[in-house]
Amino acid sequence: MAVSVLIERKFKPEGIQKAYEVIVKxxxxxxxxxxxxSGQTLVAVDDPNRVVVLGTWASxxxxxxxxxxxxxxxxxxxxxxxSTSNERVDVLMVLV
Length: 96
Description:
Blueprint: E1 3-10, H1 16-30, E2 36-44, E3 47-57, H2 60-67, H3 70-79, E4 88-93
Antiparallel strand pairs: 1-3, 1-4, 2-3
């Protein structure tokens, strides 16, 4: 069953541009992974430092494989010094 994954991060104003670059790289890498269906990067209208990535995966196992992938971990580490808090991840089932 497909799942949608919401990843929310809040960034320091001085790090937002670099954060956008890393997020684009992460999404690009994710497209090569088995089970990746689609994704969007959303920015809050009232707070451009709050970014939500919405990804859709064919199964929770394929998402978890990507979440633990070393390439993802390397890129995510680059976001840590740019962030004001830890990433928040919500995994939701898609109802048909």
